[in-house]
Amino acid sequence: MNIIRLCFLATALLVAGTTPGAADVNRDRPVQGILDLLPADAHTDHVLKTQDGDLPYTATAGTIALRGQDGKVSARIFYTAYVATTDRRRPLTFAFNGGPGAASAYLHLGLAGPRLVDFGPEGRDGTAARMRDNPESWLRFTDLVFIDPVGTGWSRPAGNGSDFYGVSQDADALAKFIALYVQRTDRAAAPKYLLGESYGGFRAAKVATALKDRQGILVSGIVMVSPMIEASLIFGATDDPLGAALQLPSIAAAELERRGAFDAGAVAEAEQFAMTDYLVTIAGRAPRGPDAEKFYDRVAMLTGVDRRTVERARGFIGNMLGRTEDGRITSPYDAAVTAPDPYPETPGSRSDDPILDGFTRAYGAFFASYARNELNYPCEMTYSLLSTDVNRRWDWKEGRSGTRANAGASDDIRELLATIPSFRLLVMHGYSDVITPYGASRYVLDHLPLALAENRTELTLYRGGHMFYTRRDALSASTEDARAFYERAPRTE
């Protein structure tokens, strides 16, 4: 999932496995420590009622072992797979969230899986949350495998996790998991897709590269949900003119939502202003006189930020969104959502985020219950929805260098487009997400070589924020866009 708090194997690992089954998948036990608590794989049969009719499917909840050069189990990766037909050439999608440190329950129970946590029509009421069937599940057009990266969900390392908590290590581990799953289930002929949210979008590009370079598997496409693609375009929003300009339309969209006046045309006008007068002005000397009055008035009107605050910040307002003038907290995950400030007497904001720390936390408890009661997977470990330990320990280096601020996946996307002629990319965003604003992804796509990107990359927008799919209207629209994306794939005999 999601980038935790404004975010985000150098050692070669070997994976080994056996034919799937409750008895033999875990026959290498006993293993030491916490891995003993993971149950044997469970297989259950279900039927999903959809607008296309009844859809029978088999669910598998289980783990796959990763091994080190010494042959010992170094980690077990938990997954949930949904297979709807016996056609081994049916599209197969591997899904994961981001963080780093987030489990897959967000995409699983929020967007694509056959069961859904419903937070009400507005998608924001955690106390009214309930599980229901998801007739719009992506299972209608692709088999699904939801993966919890090591350190999240029920995926655990045998050691301290340092061999997995990093950009390259993580990508290699997930690529090896995917390769092993494909081997075990005889799905080599299936078109393979990756679905990743937030850091998971960045992760998807890295995993696709690792699959190509080190596993000999070519993916047919990637769907990125609210992704971070180039960190420099996101983390620079508070003091870099380009980053601020790319973020401004999302802030404007949120202000329109708060006023009950959302209009895509008005957002488009904000986009035009952001990349012209706004960008030029904040990149140059501070305006003076009538020009300054006109500029700061317009920024204040578009964003809802106090006029004096806008001028004091010289138009850089990304770091002015935490607390509103009337003493409420704004969520960067959806800047249209505010909550009362529990500490109004203190300078700055020290409160929990109303989305990340609020209603979406329910995904973890709902998934643990769902796995036990419906998937017949009674795990006695706590399901780790968001691991701050993984996030804190993340190694951002690729090769010998790299930091969070300069992490990027544009080069991976270019290489995938260049070396896999049928590869395509779909990027989905919520308008009012300011933590990974859609403007940053549009900038990346717009700067791909036309010969590579034309008719092969797409950006779609929905009302809502980082987890726009909690809104029923956005869930329906994004599912139909995804279905169209899969149906446009080149057909093979």
Describe it.
With 493 residues, this protein is an alpha/beta fold. It folds into 2 domains: 14-232 and 385-487, Rossmann fold (3-Layer(aba) Sandwich); 240-315. It has helices spanning 105-112, 167-185, 199-215, 232-235, 241-258, 264-283, 289-303, 307-312, 362-373, 388-393, 410-419, 438-446, 450-453, 472-487; strands at 14-15, 42-50, 53-67, 73-83, 92-96, 115-118, 130-133, 143-147, 156-157, 192-197, 221-225, 328-331, 334-340, 424-430, 457-462. The strands form 3 sheets. Strands 1, 2, 3, 4, 5, 8, 9, 10, 11, 14 and 15 form an 11-stranded mixed β-sheet that branches. Strand 10, helix 3 (199-215) and strand 11 (221-225) form a beta-alpha-beta unit. The radius of gyration is 22 Å and the shape is globular. The model is unreliable at 4-31 (pLDDT under 50).
Summarize the structure.
This protein has helices at residues 105-112, 167-185, 199-215, 232-235, 241-258, 264-283, 289-303, 307-312, 362-373, 388-393, 410-419, 438-446, 450-453, 472-487; strands spanning 14-15, 42-50, 53-67, 73-83, 92-96, 115-118, 130-133, 143-147, 156-157, 192-197, 221-225, 328-331, 334-340, 424-430, 457-462.
Key attributes of the depicted protein:
493 residues, alpha/beta, 2 domains, eleven-stranded mixed β-sheet, 33% helix
Tell me the layout of helices and strands.
Elements: E1 14-15, E2 42-50, E3 53-67, E4 73-83, E5 92-96, H1 105-112, E6 115-118, E7 130-133, E8 143-147, E9 156-157, H2 167-185, E10 192-197, H3 199-215, E11 221-225, H4 232-235, H5 241-258, H6 264-283, H7 289-303, H8 307-312, E12 328-331, E13 334-340, H9 362-373, H10 388-393, H11 410-419, E14 424-430, H12 438-446, H13 450-453, E15 457-462, H14 472-487
